[in-house]
Design goal:
- It is a single chain.
- By secondary structure, this protein is of the alpha+beta class.
- The protein has one domain (5-185): Aminopeptidase (3-Layer(aba) Sandwich), CATH 3.40.630.30.
- 31% of the residues lie in helices and 31% in strands.
- The protein is built from 6 helices and 10 strands.
- It has helices spanning 20-27, 34-37, 44-56, 110-125, 140-148, 179-185, and strands at 5-6, 10-13, 58-59, 64-65, 67-72, 78-88, 91-101, 130-136, 152-157, 172-178.
- An 8-stranded mixed β-sheet has the order 1-2-5-6-7-8-10-9, with helices on both faces. The protein has a two-stranded antiparallel sheet with strand order 3-4.
- Strand 5 (67-72) and strand 6 (78-88) form a beta hairpin.
Length: 186
C-alpha cells in the first residue's frame, strides 16, 4: 500500500510494523495522552499487541484501512495519526473522524488540514454519508479542530470510562457533518 492521501503539507500513509517506535513515543507523552487516559504512557507491549493491530486493520467497505500515519510532507517527520474509520466495517455510511498528533505538531493547523482532506475524500470517493467525532467536553483544542473541519456540535453525553480522569465529570461531546450539509457549504 502506498500513500493514501496527500495535502499541501501532509502525507497520510498506511501504518506498518516499523511504526512501533513512533507510536510508543506518541503515546508516551503525558500531554498527548491527557484526554485519552489521564496522561499515562502506553507500554511498548500494548502498542504491539493491541494498538498496532487496530491501526493495521482493513475495512471491507473501504477496501483499505481506517487509520493513517501522518507525516510532514517536506521532511517525512512522523506527526501522529488520523482515524477515518467506518462504524460498521461493512458499510461506509457513517465514519468516525479522529486524530492524535505529537506536541510539536499542535497549533500548526495539521489536524484541521488532515481532517478536511479526509472528509472530502470520504464524501467524494468513499460513499460516506455522515462523519462523526467525539472528545471530552473539556478538550477545547480538539473541539476547535472539529469545528474548523466543518463539523457541528450535536450533543453532550456521559461515556463509560474504565476509570475517571480529570475533566471526565463534564462528559463527552459529539460533533457531526452530513454529506448534505457538506455539499451545501461547498
Amino acid at each position: 500500500m502506498g500513500v493514501f492521501l496527500e495535502t499541501e503539507r501532509l502525507v497520510l500513509r498506511p501504518f506498518t510494523d516499523t511504526d512501533v517506535d513512533h507510536l510508543v513515543a506518541l503515546d508516551g507523552d503525558p500531554e498527548v495522552m491527557r484526554f485519552i487516559n489521564g496522561g499515562r504512557p502506553t507500554s511498548r507491549e500494548t502498542i504491539q499487541v493491541r494498538t498496532l493491530p487496530r491501526l493495521l486493520h482493513d475495512y471491507p467497505c473501504f477496501d483499505t484501512r481506517g487509520y493513517w500515519a501522518a507525516e510532514e510532507k517536506d521532511t517525512g517527520t512522523f506527526l501522529g495519526w488520523f482515524e477515518f474509520r467506518p462504524l460498521d466495517e461493512h458499510s461506509p455510511a457513517v465514519v468516525e473522524l479522529g486524530y492524535r498528533l505529537n506536541k510539536a505538531a499542535w497549533g500548526k493547523g495539521y489536524a484541521t488540514e488532515g481532517s478536511r482532506a479526509l472528509i472530502e475524500k470520504g464524501f467524494t470517493d468513499l460513499g460516506v454519508q455522515r462523519v462523526t467525532a467525539n472528545t471530552m467536553a473539556v478538550n477545547a483544542g480538539s473541539r476547535r479542530v472539529m469545528e474548523k473541519a466543518g463539523l457541528s456540535f450535536l450533543r453532550t453525553f456521559t461515556g463509560d470510562w474504565p476509570e475517571a480522569i480529570e475533566g471526565s465529570e463534564h462528559g463527552e461531546v459529539e460533533y457531526e457533518l452530513t454529506r448534505t450539509d457538506w455539499e451545501q457549504r461547498r
